[in-house]
């Protein structure tokens, strides 16, 4: 996975961070990791600093002053990566809901199959979610269908957070115009790529709910996704793509 880096945003992930870093590095000697930590009270960043002594020149850390949302953490990470020479930039959760073994599949979709954006999709081959209560599965599945209907995107898992971008996609999108900070951020980024006519491929993966730590999902995040999508679509009809 030459030229690849995985961005992992963290807030109180001390129970998962060492294991996920080692699991990602076990997939390839070439892959790098950038942890963007929101000044976690549980000292997640301190653990990353300790691991940097073992994984020098492969593990990087950016610590922000406070918890400011998933979207802004990824934007911070994107800009950091674009300042370097990375060609394949991944988004991935710290809690093992995304299987590190699937990184190769997402990479191959871009590097071999020609995708500009590859998505680890929970819904392209049915519903591949483990350990979620039925209510949450239905909410997530219906949310993706709703977003697909409103936006017109031919994507089954529009809210997926396990993705790989080719560098040129992030360069084409004006990251300063991204408005959403919660899970709607994932929708907005895909929509921008879609409007820019980049090739998007969905790769089937199995999503497994976290077993350690606490979920960051909230009612505010859900509301942002539901109501923000309509606003995003309407604005796209009258404004330039990026």
UniProtKB/TrEMBL annotation:
Domain Glycosyltransferase 2-like, chain residue ranges per copy: 6-172
Taxonomic superkingdom: Bacteria
Gene Ontology cellular component list: membrane
Segments crossing the lipid bilayer: none
Keyword Glycosyltransferase set for record: yes
Glycosyltransferase among keywords: yes
Record key words, sorted: Glycosyltransferase, Transferase
Single GO MF descriptor: dolichyl-phosphate beta-D-mannosyltransferase activity
Matches recorded under Pfam families: Glycos_transf_2 (PF00535)
SUPFAM superfamilies for the chain: Nucleotide-diphospho-sugar transferases
GO BP: glycolipid biosynthetic process
Family under the similarity heading: Belongs to the glycosyltransferase 2 family.
Name this protein carries in UniProt: Dolichol-phosphate mannosyltransferase
Organism, as annotated: Seonamhaeicola aphaedonensis
């Amino acid at each position: 996975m030459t030229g690849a880096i995985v961005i992992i945003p963290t807030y109180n992930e001390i129970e998962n961070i060492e294991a996920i870093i080692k699991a990602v590095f076990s997939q390839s000697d070439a892959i790098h990791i950038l942890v963007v930590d929101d000044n976690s009270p549980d000292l997640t960043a301190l653990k990353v600093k300790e691991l940097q002594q073992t994984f020098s020149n492969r593990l990087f850390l950016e610590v922000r002053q406070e918890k400011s949302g998933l979207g802004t953490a990824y934007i911070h990470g994107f800009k950091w990566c674009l300042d370097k020479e990375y060609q394949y930039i991944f988004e991935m959760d710290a809690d093992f809901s995304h299987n590190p073994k699937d990184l190769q599949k997402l990479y191959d979709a871009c590097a071999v199959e020609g995708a500009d954006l590859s998505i680890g999709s929970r819904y392209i081959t049915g519903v591949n979610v483990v350990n979620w209560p039925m209510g949450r599965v239905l909410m997530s599945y219906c949310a993706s269908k709703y977003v697909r209907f409103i936006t017109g995107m031919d994507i089954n898992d529009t809210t997926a957070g396990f993705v790989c971008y080719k560098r040129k996609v992030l360069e084409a999108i004006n990251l300063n115009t991204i408005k959403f900070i919660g899970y709607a951020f994932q929708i907005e980024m895909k929509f921008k790529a879609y409007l820019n006519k980049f090739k998007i491929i969905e790769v089937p993966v199995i999503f497994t709910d976290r077993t350690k730590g606490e979920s960051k999902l909230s009612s505010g995040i859900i509301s942002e996704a539901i109501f923000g999508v309509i606003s995003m679509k309407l604005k796209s009809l009258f404004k330039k793509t990026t």
